[in-house]
Automatic annotation (TrEMBL):
Its main location: cytoplasm. Binds 1 zinc ion per subunit. HAMAP family: Sirtuin_ClassU. It catalyses: N(6)-acetyl-L-lysyl-[protein] + NAD(+) + H2O = 2''-O-acetyl-ADP-D-ribose + nicotinamide + L-lysyl-[protein]. This is NAD-dependent protein deacetylase. One of its GO terms (molecular function) is NAD+ binding. Its cofactor is Zn(2+). The active site is at residue 120.
Length: 239
C-alpha cells in the first residue's frame, strides 16, 4: 500500500514526531467512540451524554452522573492495543517526543508512553472537592452510589466535563511540542471537538499525517492521508 510506504518513510526520516489522538485510538481496545454509530451518543438514555457529562449536571445530580459514569466511562480492564504499543516503541527509540490525547483512559501510559498530555484529564485521577484528597479509579468503582471522601466532600473525577475549560499548563505544553515537531501524526479523531482540535494550527511543518477510518474537516490540509484502523496501520511500521 503506497500510503503505508510513505508513512514509513516519514517516520524513518523524522526524529521529532508528535502524535495527536482521539477516541478511535482506544476503540480497538474495546472502548466506545462517543461519535461513532455504536458510540455513546447513539444509545438511549433519559438525557443525552452531553448533558450528563456536564459540570452543571454533576453538581446538581451526582447520583445520576455517577450511575452513567461508572457504567459507560470506566473500562478498567481494557488493555493497550497495537497503536498504543507502537507509539510507546516510537518514544523509546527517540523518534516520538509526545502523545497529545483527548482520551481519559490512561492506555498510553499503560503501554509505556512517558510523555502523555491528557487534554481532557484521566479517569485514574479523582479528588475530593472539599479537601482535595486524591483517589484512584478503583476507589471510585468500589463506592456504592456517589463517592464521598472521609472528610464528607464529594469526589470528582479529574476529567474535563462539558462547561469546564482545559488545563492551561497542559495546553501550553501541547502547543510547545506541536510548534517544535518536524512531523505530526493525527489518529483516531474526528477533529470536531474544540478547543482540542484547534491545537493542530500550531504545527507549521509539511509532514502532517492523518490516520482515520472516516473523513475529517482537516483532510484537505494533510500531507498524507491514510484510511483505516490506526492499530492495524501502525503495527506495519518498523522502528
Amino acid at each position: 500500500m503506497e500510503q503505508i510506504r510513505c508513512l514509513q518513510e516519514i517516520i524513518t526520516n523524522s526524529d521529532n514526531i508528535v502524535f495527536f489522538g482521539g477516541a478511535g485510538v482506544s476503540t480497538e481496545s474495546g472502548l466506545p467512540d462517543f461519535r461513532s454509530v455504536d458510540g455513546l451518543y447513539h444509545q438511549e438514555y433519559d438525557e443525552p451524554p452531553e448533558t450528563i457529562l456536564s459540570h452543571t449536571y454533576f453538581m446538581r445530580k451526582p447520583e445520576e452522573f455517577y450511575r452513567f459514569y461508572k457504567k459507560k466511562m470506566l473500562y478498567l480492564d481494557a488493555k493497550p492495543n497495537a497503536a498504543h504499543l507502537k507509539l510507546a516503541e516510537m518514544e523509546r527509540s527517540g523518534k516520538l517526543k509526545a502523545v497529545i490525547t483527548q482520551n481519559i483512559d490512561g492506555l498510553h501510559q499503560l503501554a509505556g508512553s512517558q510523555e502523555v498530555l491528557e487534554l481532557h484529564g484521566s479517569v485514574h485521577r479523582n479528588y475530593c472537592l472539599k479537601c482535595r484528597k486524591q483517589y484512584n479509579a478503583e476507589d471510585i468503582i468500589n463506592f456504592q452510589g456517589v463517592p464521598v471522601c472521609s472528610c464528607g466532600g464529594i469526589i470528582k473525577p479529574d476529567v474535563v466535563l462539558y462547561e469546564e475549560g482545559l488545563n492551561e499548563e497542559t495546553l501550553k505544553r501541547a502547543i510547545y511540542y506541536l510548534q517544535k515537531a518536524d512531523a505530526v501524526i493525527i489518529g483516531g479523531t474526528s477533529l470536531a471537538v474544540y478547543p482540542a482540535a484547534g491545537l493542530i494550527q500550531y504545527y507549521s511543518g509539511n509532514k502532517l499525517i492523518l490516520i482515520n477510518k472516516s473523513t475529517t474537516p482537516m483532510d484537505h490540509e494533510a500531507d498524507l492521508l491514510v484510511q483505516g484502523n490506526i492499530g492495524e496501520i501502525l503495527k506495519q511500521i518498523r522502528i
